[in-house]
């Protein structure tokens, strides 16, 4: 049986994978700019707690005025998810999906909400229905991979990530997802290769580097992990991220020691 610490580490890696995959699974309607819908000053993932709370309140007010409005609903649900209010985000998207049953953008956002709320099989079906076969969306393909990883279907997940990379080569969010997939099967060395490649891409954001920090820390190189975790973040954000890393690795800072209790699953290339 896996050790309790190993389970916690895998759960943390799994959460990190889903967070970046599903936030990257966006559509043009996620960028709210029209009508009376509040315009976001920055992406939700870059907001601090105060900014996120304010944006959520403003978007919620717009949604309450017209619960059937697709843009208000999608924007509000996304902000709720970023705030950790997954059940509420799912409830919002259920109503928007009922009002817009054929809208592919709505289906994509609904699938994200389902996945964040733990309804993985339903989310996979919803996101698959949102896909356009003749013009596949690499973001949706990557989101499919993240859900498959959550379901323990790592080989299928990695195949989907590589399909996404065929469409969008060197996309850092997909490379990060692929790397985190290997964390979930106890192969941090392979994971680090993909995550370093992801972090080197021009479009990489701080979440990619936080995943890299996690993988480096899992291999016992905590000073290096802390240095990575502090890059390009405010001191407050950096301290929070480092505290998270320390909490995960405080009892045992070497992945090899963890893995010695359970043979790692062979990597699928």
Describe the model:
The protein is mainly alpha-helical and 269 residues long. The protein has helices at 4-24, 49-65, 70-82, 86-99, 104-116, 120-130, 138-150, 154-167, 172-184, 188-199, 206-218, 222-229, 235-249, 255-259.
Can you give me a brief rundown of this structure?
The chain is mainly alpha-helical. It is 68% helix and 0% strand.
Poorly predicted sequence stretches spanning 5 or more consecutive residues: 1-13, 24-35, 252-269
Q: Could you spell the SSE succession in H and E letters?
A: HHHHHHHHHHHHHH
Largest sheet: none
Approximate strand percentage: under 5%
Whole-number radius of gyration?
A: 18 Å
Number of strands: 0
Please, how many helices? 14
Shape: globular
In round numbers, the mean pLDDT is 80
- Euclidean distance between termini CA atoms: 26 Å
Give the helix/strand class. mainly alpha
Helix content: 55-70%
Features:
single chain
Please describe the topology of this protein.
Blueprint: H1 4-24, H2 49-65, H3 70-82, H4 86-99, H5 104-116, H6 120-130, H7 138-150, H8 154-167, H9 172-184, H10 188-199, H11 206-218, H12 222-229, H13 235-249, H14 255-259
Helix pairs in contact: 1-7, 1-9, 1-11, 2-3, 3-4, 3-5, 4-5, 5-6, 6-7, 7-8, 7-9, 8-9, 9-10, 9-11, 10-11, 11-12
């Amino acid at each position: 049986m896996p050790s309790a610490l190993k389970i916690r580490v895998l759960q943390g890696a799994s959460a990190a994978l889903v967070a970046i995959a599903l936030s990257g699974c966006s559509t043009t309607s996620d960028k709210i700019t029209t009508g009376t819908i509040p315009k976001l000053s920055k992406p939700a993932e870059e907001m601090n707690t105060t900014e996120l709370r304010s944006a959520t309140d403003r978007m919620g007010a717009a949604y309450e005025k017209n619960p059937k409005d697709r843009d208000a609903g999608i924007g509000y649900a996304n902000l709720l998810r970023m705030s950790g209010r997954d059940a509420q985000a799912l409830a919002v998207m259920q109503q928007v999906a009922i009002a817009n049953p054929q809208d592919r953008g709505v289906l994509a956002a609904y699938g994200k909400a389902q996945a964040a709320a733990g309804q993985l099989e339903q989310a996979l079906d919803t996101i698959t229905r949102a896909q356009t076969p003749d013009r596949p969306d690499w973001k949706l393909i990557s989101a499919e991979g993240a859900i498959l990883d959550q379901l323990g279907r790592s080989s299928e997940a990695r195949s989907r990530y590589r399909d996404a990379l065929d469409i969008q080569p060197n996309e850092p969010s997909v490379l990060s997802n692929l790397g985190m997939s290997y964390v979930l099967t106890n192969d941090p060395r392979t994971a680090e290769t993909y995550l370093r490649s992801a972090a080197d891409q021009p479009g990489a954001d701080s979440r990619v580097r936080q995943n890299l920090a996690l993988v480096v820390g899992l291999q016992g190189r905590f000073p290096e992990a802390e240095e990575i975790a502090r890059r390009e973040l405010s001191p407050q954000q950096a301290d929070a991220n480092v505290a998270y890393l320390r909490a995960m690795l405080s009892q045992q800072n070497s992945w090899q020691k963890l893995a010695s209790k359970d043979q790692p699953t062979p990597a699928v290339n």
